[in-house]
Amino acid sequence: MVSNVCGGAIARPDGTTNTRETHEGNRVNPLTVFGLFAVTAMLVCYALEKRSRWFILGFAGACALGSAYGFLQGAWPFGLVEIVWCAVALHRWRVSRLTSRTLNTP
Question: Cβ neighbours of residue 81 under 8 Å, at least 6 residues apart?
Answer without folding.
Answer: 70
